[in-house]
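Sequence, structure tokens reproduced for absentees:
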Amino acid sequence: MSPIDVVRREMSRMQAGVRQGLRAVLSRLTISTKVQRVSGEGLAGEDLDEMELMQHFGFTSAPPTGTEYIVLPLGGRTSASVVVATEHGAYRFVVDNQGESCAYNQWGDFAHFKKDRSIHIKAQEKVFVETKVFRVEASERIELVSPDLLVQTSTKSRFETPRLETTQLLQAMQLTVGGVTGGIGAAVATMNGGTVNFNNVAFNYQSCNLTFDAASSIRQDGKNLGSTHNHNETGSVTLGPNA
């Protein structure tokens, strides 16, 4: 036997006592410990119990039963094995292009960072954000599309905008025109059709135009209806109503 064959034989004998990395299938996961513990079965049928699942700081996941994982025996010892990678083909989110990434779960919820520089987030039930200050900055537009929108505030809601529009009905329990801190110019509210309550007086009208200005005068189709209005009568003009 040549010296090279002797070396090969001795190296093979040494390697036989060193456990190599292997694949396994997860059967049980313990998530209550500081480092999650994985138990499963190796592809050769061996039992692998309570191995540490090592994950990157700032990210955690709890892989479901049936997940394939890679076991790395530290120092070649099975008793010192750790899990360094996991994958479950049945639940893996398939991205569209190289360079994309996605965070997902087994129920189909995901956050997909796409090639076109958009982020697609999908949650079947609810997206909950908890923070002290929530600020969104958009250079062009913010779109909210929903059959219903609820905004709950304990003090006030303020829109700092030169114009506020609705395409249909605007309802309010109480409407105050003017006297808003930071307001610009004389505040005027104009309403068409329906009922208006102003200074505890109810106005019912259809197909007309009522205007309430900062001086508390009321105009219908341009005519003053306030205390300074005049009545045109035959042969005379009657000034405002009696005191």
